[in-house]
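re: ur question from earlier - yeah i can do the single chain one, its not a big deal. heres the input i used so u can compare w yours
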Amino acid sequence: MSDSSSLLARPVIRRLSEQVVNRIAAGEVIERPAAALKELVENAIDSGARRIAILLEQGGINRIEVVDDGCGMTPDDLMLAVERHCTSKLRDETLVRIETLGFRGEALPSIGAAARLSVTSRPHGADSAWRVTVEGGLVSAPAPCAGAAGTRVVVEDMFFATPARRKFLKSPRVEGGHADITVRRLALSVPHVAFRLQLDDRVVFDLPGQDMAARVAAILETEGADGMLPVEGVKGDLVLSGFACGPSVHRATAAGQILLVNGRPVVDPVLRTAVRVGYRHVIEHGRHAVVALSLTIPPDMVDVNVHPAKTELRFADPAAVRGLVIGALGRALGGGAGVAGVRPGLLQSRTAGPARIWYPPADPAPARVVAPVFAAPGPAAISGGRLDLGDRPAARVLDPVLPAVPPVAGAGKGAVPLEDEGAVLADPADYPLGAPVAQVMGTYVIAVSGDGALVLVDQHAAHERLTHERLRAQYLDGTLRAQRLLLPEVVTLPRGQAEAVLSRAGTLSALGVEIEPFGGDAVLVRALPALLGTDDPAALLRDMAEEMAEDDLADADEVQALDGRLDAILARMACHGSVRAGRSLTRAEMDALLRDMERTPRAGTCSHGRPTWLKLSRADLETLFGRR
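and the output i got, formated as tokens:
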């Protein structure tokens, strides 16, 4: 009887205490020290601060201190600030025109419910500062104290009141890394505000108020890159601006992508996907681009009240946003090889410390420099006639004959001057990849640029990109011409790949590849694109079949992923139709290759995202040889 009565017992609903409610709510807002730091820095920015100083101890687990010179708060403001759902940032109750980073009124109460919080503030012109403390949700009365104009917030013993959350924190190094990324995103949203971040005894950065370009370079640490590409785009009421690194600068994670919407740092899947698609043609698979983009959108077209952390949002027209970002990045990355931001270098990092090898100083009386044009040196200038063991040198030195195209002027040392000073010179800026001087290993073209730097070109990777872009342009223009094979070739494929290829016969026909079933798992190839001129249709079809078999779309004609799939197929086709490694090139072919690379969009990387060329400046060579 007692058992049945216990089963029928109705649970009693009771009202939770305010402290428990605050601790539950704090778990949504304050996930880790970086989340608390984000809320505090947002409050400092919203207060109109011109300088914000941040100090973290043990990654913020032990202590977070944020000091700003903003408007400050009165004692009455302080008491309201630590009360839940009290804010000065909402002009009305529609939650539409939100112009500040914070607006929910949950940050300080949530932090005070999970940690020991102290807020000291003094309005400009006030006689003294006032301090209020909150420990585990218990609020003290404001007390006068000494303090500079502005606000100083100290958070200690993070999650001491919620031990279950504290034990799930990572190491101080990991938590400090999350805090670092958080501050960088916020610092980029307000470049006019000076920021200082200190982790324990190490100053991570101390930045003055800057323009956007300087702040992007400092925050993303791209000062060593060869320029940031400006990104601009307008689509109706949407405005996109910012900077993007070229394909040669990439990282293993997306931490180098800072995305702002109306000045608010966000982690949005629509924008992340658009960035990935924008770099799809030029960056290696699995790597992440480095960008800083700012989207301005009417407030009624975006909802920022999606998550307590305010890093997620919803767009009224996500397709328009995605198209704007992809198009703007495509235009920024569409320059030919040799332009700023698409300049791969052999040395990704410099060796610290002075050189250990002493070299005599340079001649203090430099010889007279004649304005030169590039001409290939004689055989002895590169490698000598023969090696000591009687083997032929690996370098194919070009004959000392000027190319048919206008010669490239060499303004710096390292160029070979001609005796004829009356030669017609071209502007080196028009030929950033310089003039070819040799071919080594049957694969790499050596050139000298107008500033005297050494340029190395992978002939296969470069021609692969050129062929890819020509195929794509012809396909988009509807001028891609097929060439029928004299003898159609039968290719046997695994069953899954054969079905994938035949199901897309119509798409392949538009690409110049005509196929038809030949019974079982065999496919008959009747025509290939005339641009390729490949003599191995079987290898090409097998590669294309592998590419299509990886497509897991249920509908073969789904438009959303059609462009990406076709581009991947074109990349496979281009690989088969490009100049192979090991093929000897004439001077005219080398020069034409360099000039085509300079004119062709995205020619800084091949279709697989690998660099097509490397540049070694004087500084790079001196570092390699231990001169610096």
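The chain has 18 helices and 26 strands. not sure if urs matches, ping me
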